[in-house]
């Protein structure tokens, strides 16, 4: 489990208080209390491409938030 404690230190969008877990083969869970957002992602990505997919999913989720 990882918890974001400050702004600006991550390669992906998010706010302090966000918590996340990444699993085998690219699976991912993240919860962002400030935005009232929960995402569960199930993928089967081999090798280093897993990190790319995790980051892209998080970018797309945050880009879809409508204020």
UniProtKB/TrEMBL annotation:
InterPro entries from the UniProt entry: Beta-lactam/transpept-like
Superkingdom of origin: Bacteria
Protein name, UniProt field: Beta-lactamase
